[in-house]
Design brief:
Length: about 80
């Protein structure tokens, strides 16, 4: 059944999600430099959301985990060509 009213649906932070998608594209296209810059933007925005209290603690932790995974991906990054 489709929830047409959106109740119970978790609202995502669109700005954070946009940066996450950019990082995924960067990594999939072997653009390590761009990925590193976008990871820095993501870290700064997560810190800002944390300081201004604009997001629930659980959501912040979820985004921090995503950030941590991206940082590991970049550390282990190897060119495929």
């Amino acid at each position: 059944m489709i929830n047409i009213f959106g109740f119970g649906k978790k609202k995502k932070d669109e700005e954070l999600e946009e940066i996450i998608n950019e990082i995924k594209v960067d990594l999939s296209n072997n653009y390590k430099d761009n990925a590193v810059l976008n990871i820095k933007k993501l870290r700064e925005l997560i810190d800002l959301r944390s300081m201004d209290g604009a997001m629930k603690k659980e959501d912040l932790e979820e985004y921090r985990k995503i950030l941590e995974n991206f940082e590991m991906d970049v550390r282990n990054f190897k060119r495929t060509y």
